[in-house]
Design brief:
By secondary structure, the protein is of the alpha+beta class. It has one domain: Nucleoside Triphosphate Pyrophosphohydrolase. It has helices at about 5, 50-65, 120-125, 130-140; strands spanning about 10-20, 25-30, 40, 40-45, 65-70, 75-80, 90-105, 115-120. A hairpin with a 5-residue loop joins strand 6 (about 75-80) and strand 7. Helix 3 packs antiparallel against helix 4. It is globular and about 45 Å long.
């Protein structure tokens, strides 16, 4: 988790932890557009939208999923976002669980990203952010 005094120095984003439970718990990750590393769908907060709703919109745009998003974040994780100007900006992303109900064959960023289902352990290994990995593993350990 990000310490409160550090969080004030960071920009804020929202992210979706897309998952399904049938037949077992799996996590959906997408590749980032620039670095092609495995990430959760995320983006900037949206005017007029609550953060969990903005996370669900990002999940649709980046991963082509619709589902039920939790209003409560699992926690937050920090990472360094590389902007188009090549500037590196520290960001804190609040992570909202989203149970995937519909997996679309076509979505806005399909041509720019890959998506793949992972076991929680594989997803934690695939992401580069230690705090995100810990959130994924913690989510997998929660009962029900």
């Amino acid at each position: 988790m990000i310490e409160p005094d550090q969080e004030s120095l960071r920009d804020r984003q929202v992210a979706a932890l897309c998952y399904r439970t049938s037949p077992r718990l799996e996590i959906l990750l997408v590749t980032s557009r620039e670095t092609r590393r495995w990430v959760t769908p995320k983006g900037w907060p949206m005017k007029g939208k609550r953060d969990h709703a903005a996370a669900a919109i990002e999940a649709f745009e980046e991963a082509g999923v619709d589902g039920v998003v939790s209003e409560e974040a699992l926690g937050s994780f920090g990472y360094e976002k590389v902007l188009k100007t090549t500037e590196i900006r520290p960001v804190t992303a609040a992570l909202y669980p989203l149970e995937v109900i519909i997996l679309r064959e076509d979505w806005p960023e399909k041509a720019q990203r890959q998506r793949r289902w992972f076991t929680p352990a594989e997803a934690a290994e695939a992401v580069q952010e230690p705090e995100l990995a810990a959130l994924i593993l913690g989510f997998a350990e929660k009962p029900g």
